[in-house]
Amino acid sequence: MNFIEMPKIELHCHLDGSLRSETIIDIAKREGIQLPSFDKDELQKELIAPLDCESLEEYLKRFSLPNLVMQSKENLKRIAFELFEDAAKENVKYMEVRFAPLLHTGKGLDVTEVIESVLAGMREAECHYEIKGNIILSCMRTMSADSAFEVVEKGKEFLGKGVVAIDLCAIEEDGFCGRFVEPIALAREYGYRVTIHAGETGIGKNVLEAVELLGAERIGHGVFIKDCPEAYNIVKDRQVVLEMCPTSNVQTKAVHLYSDHPIYQFHKDEIKVTINTDNRTVSDTTMAKEYDVIGSEFNLSEEDYQQIYFNSVEASFADEETKKWCLAQL
User: Fold this and answer.
1) Which of 19, 27, 72, 249 is the most exposed place for a label (fewest CB within 10 A)?
2) 14 annotated ligand-binding residue
């Protein structure tokens, strides 16, 4: 199958992990921001995590550099537009992009301005390309529960206007869900959908708690339900959808080889899996590449591809009209 030409849906992509290196250089030169190098090839070495990356912690170090240029309304709008433009050019039809607004307030922007800017970039891309999108607001697990309340409160005015869901991300610690029960409950009350990063770094029980304590409808990664029967069963029984990111999982050592990835085993056991990039720049990938590697490793059939596509559309936080449009792309 030619995955470049086939329609694709992406549900798990981080804005700050998906910048063009040329854009970082251009903004840095214009704003006097110091970079390790202004040579594209050299800068790529700082931005891309290697496949032999040692851990999630090492992987996440790649995000500090992009955030230097994501501190103004103009830059955020441009970066969001370019991400959707890049996705549209490889035939991604619908995309949910996530970011943590509080990471972009370092030079005076407030959370509202950050969200508005990203939405503006997305809307501009929708006008130029055959792609539709929505935004997921991430709260950092390295920050306090109060910071999550702030994101939930300031993001609620954008619900139904491009913001669809709340997320928890960053370093994964055992039992993190308990600290965020109240802000996530408030988010659900306001109408946010819920997706939670969990089970990425060997703690399958976190997936169980994300579903039971936080009401997660989707799980970012979820690899380690394979080692936790309770988590595995609740994901399967409640049809919680896994946003799986194969290359990222190899880089962070959730798995050591693509052939070790449980995605196809899950799929065959009727767990609802989706394929995603996680971070296009940090993982040096695209949706087509992710499908290619999983397709070749596990001999994906056209029926497998269609089922994963359907899973992605059904699990998306899009409205029904957008879902019908996405299904019609097949």
Assistant:
1) 72
2) yes
